[in-house]
Amino acid sequence: MEKRALGKGLSALIPPKEVEQGQQEKVLQIPLSQIKTSKYQPRVEFNKERLEELISSIKEKGVIQPILVRRSADGYELIAGERRLRAAKALDIERLPAIVRDVQDIDMLELSLIENIQREELNPIEEANAFQKFITDFKFTQEKIAQVLGKDRSTIANTIRLLNLPKKIQEFISREAITAGHAKALLSLPTENEQLRVCNLVIKKGLSVRETENLVARRTAGTKSMGSKKDKDANIIDIENRLQNILGTRVKIFHGKSRGRIQIEYYSNEDLNRLLDIFSRVK
After folding, report:
1. Which range has highest mean pLDDT (50-64, 84-98, 113-127, 244-258)?
2. pLDDT score of 232
3. β-pair partners for 70
4. What integer pLDDT is reported at residue 22 of this predicted model?
5. CA-to-CA distance for 125 and 131, rounded, in angstroms?
6. Residue-wise DSSP of 98-118
7. How many degrees, rounded to 5, is the angle at CA 159 between CA 119 and CA 105?
8. Which of 3, 121, 137, 154 is 20 to 30 A distant from 255 in Cα terms?
9. What is the set of active-site residues?
């Protein structure tokens, strides 16, 4: 793939067409009935209050900024501007100002993802699904995604791992009932039932991320061999908790009188490489 300037939003991914001096790019008035939303739109949740504010603004001043679309077999596919499209539909507006661009599928996903990340409009599950789509649809590695988005590979890996949680917990994350930090701690629990049980407890008691990490650490502490869950030293539990937070995976410490061992779990080759990256940065 040809290397492109990425991570800078619309201007980086879709450079303006060359136009003659003094000419402006053509804005078309396209019927809403001909515009379809993009299958590469990572956002699922749209803030109702912000959408209502946009509806009020458009009702008073009209649509000031054109949406971006590309041509499709039966009309147009949206590139950017879904909130404006939704607001226009709510107001029964028949046409929207739009700029037509020639954009490939991979650019569609990159553009939608980068724009939403820059505006901090994606929840962690939406980000995770978008990252996974890079892998399944375009055969990207986690390292390549990190390069495209200007993020650490460990961040990409940790976000994708949220998709290993039960769907119910993913819904809690999307609805902001718990944070990604809470979810990251829950990933260290061995079964889905245990993850759900602890998640419900976290929500019911309003536990902080640190309190959740401590709770998970106590539940995942070893039962035998160099100490049991019942009498495991609180300092060892705290160290396990800190290591799990740093490494983003389940960690067990088996501590004896004069020696011990640390058990670090990984769940795929990519996850192992992520851990190796973390260790390689330690001097």
Report:
1. 84-98
2. 63
3. 77
4. 38
5. 10
6. EEE----HHHHHHHHHHHHHH
7. 65
8. 154
9. 82
